[in-house]
Design a protein that fits this description.
The chain has 445 residues and is an alpha/beta fold. Helix content is 50%, strand content 9%. The strands form 2 sheets. A 7-stranded mixed beta sheet has the order 1-8-7-2-5-3-4. β3, α8 and β4 form a beta-alpha-beta unit. The chain is globular.
């Protein structure tokens, strides 16, 4: 009996600490300075570990630039096809032209530009989250002791704390939105819905030890608009809703996610589709246009890549989001991988394993840039508009812009991509008269 009483007292004390030091400040949108102190200690520890690594190395390691290309093993030449082939001999057809296509083929085999975007970003230095870094198996006793202490802190203190906060945040979201959903439609309901969503999102961000820096807040999405952002992780939505409310768009799910969807849609005009409806593009576009036409409704949040990319690049935006009309509010999200890998490799980890990795990382640190609103020009089609928005997001976030479809994570390359290169080469030959001269020679023979 005494053991049960002691456990009850310990649980009550734990909840009191969580409610008083974390939940209440996050609900009010204030900080007690605990997160700042934790990040300061963490940064100093990682800096010390980096110095120890450099001292233990036999040779000093060169400082690589913080660009995605630093992780690659191939230095690619972005010279256009016509110019590069003309350097081989001349622009007319020559058998030496095959060297261009052979080199491109070897580059794709050794290290293509697509599949590496679906694996975790490589770190420039060890962040004490794994037993050893890439270059060393044993470094020093001090680093080993620090790593052991880090494991104890992350799994014995941070993980229970974050799990408690996540459970409270999810339950508060379900109960709060269900209660608000019983009210009649009006300003009061909309106000209380936004309060519930913001409060619960802040609690969930604290559950990730999130440190988020928002830039250019004057460009935040407004009601009746469409917010589009690059996609790295399922927590992207939580990162954005921590600073404002959005209407989500997605497929109806079952289980816990389904319970959350059914509860939140009662208080907020989210747009959920059944599995049979999501394949009907016309129906999806119609419902989204109806939402955007109502300027009193929250902005729609869409991730037009359609899949998670590893925080180094922005891939092709699906044009459907840009056919709806209305004002587009681009948002660039860039995570700092030094404190934790936010990328979700859905081909390797299920959602439970991914959340466990997130909750046992040091922290989630990211920057969010709100870009100026953009509208579709009269002479633009949906694809051109999508590419212009994607370029703006890539420039602001320091991300590599790639024309490839994120669906290549699970599908094969379409024949149209192959045919495009063939068409470019044939156009070059026709423009330079090579095809005509070859045909004349054939007829004379």
């Amino acid at each position: 009996m005494e053991v049960v009483w002691a456990v009850g007292q310990l649980g009550a004390a734990w909840l009191a600490v969580v409610l008083g030091l974390v939940m209440l400040p996050s609900a009010l949108g204030v900080s007690l300075g605990i997160s700042e102190a934790y990040m300061w200690v963490l940064v100093k520890t990682l800096e010390w570990a980096t110095i120890r690594l450099q001292k233990s190395a036999k040779k000093p390691q060169p400082q690589l630039p913080r660009t995605p290309t630093a992780n690659g093993i191939i230095e690619r030449d972005e010279t256009p096809m016509e110019k590069e082939i003309s350097l081989l001999h001349r622009a007319d057809f020559e058998f030496s032209h095959i060297f261009y296509f052979c080199r491109k083929g070897f580059e794709a085999i050794v290290e293509d530009e697509v599949t590496q975007r679906f694996s975790s970003e490589e770190l420039l230095s060890w962040n004490l989250l794994t037993r050893t870094n890439v270059n060393f198996h044993y470094i020093s006793l001090k680093l080993t002791v620090v790593w052991v202490i880090g494991v104890i802190v992350r799994y014995c203190f941070l993980l229970p704390l974050r799990f408690t906060l996540a459970a409270i945040g999810i339950m508060s979201m379900i109960v709060g939105t269900t209660a608000v959903g019983q009210l009649p439609n009006g300003r009061v309901k909309n106000y209380l819905s936004e309060v519930v969503h913001l409060t619960c999102s802040r609690i969930l961000v604290r559950a990730l030890s999130g440190t988020i820096h928002y830039h250019n807040k004057e460009n935040r999405p407004r009601k009746g608009g469409i917010c589009v952002a690059n996609h790295t992780s399922p927590i992207d939505a939580i990162i954005l809703t921590n600073d404002g409310c959005y209407a989500m768009v997605g497929q109806v799910h079952g289980g816990l996610m389904g319970i959350i969807q059914r509860a939140t849609v009662k208080a907020c005009p989210h747009v959920w589709f059944e599995r049979s409806e999501i394949k009907d593009r016309h129906l999806v576009t119609k419902r989204l246009r109806e939402h955007v036409a109502d300027k009193s409704k929250l902005p729609i949040l869409i991730f037009p890549e359609g899949t998670c990319i590893n925080n180094t690049s922005v891939m092709m935006f699906k044009k459907g989001s840009f056919e709806i009309g209305g004002t587009i509010y681009p948002v660039a999200i860039k995570y700092d991988p030094q404190f934790g890998d936010a990328f979700w490799n859905s081909s390797k980890y299920n959602i439970v394993s991914y959340l466990l990795r997130i909750m046992t990382s040091w922290a989630i640190v990211c920057n969010v840039w709100y870009l100026p609103p953009m509208v579709r020009k009269e002479d633009e089609d949906a694809v051109q508009f999508a590419n212009r928005v994607r370029s703006a997001i890539a420039r602001q976030g320091g991300l590599t812009e790639l024309p490839w479809d994120g669906g290549l994570k699970r599908a094969k390359v379409k024949d149209t991509f192959k045919e495009e290169q063939q068409k470019n080469y044939s156009k070059m030959l026709v423009r330079n008269g090579s095809v005509g001269s070859l045909s004349a020679e054939t007829e004379s023979e």
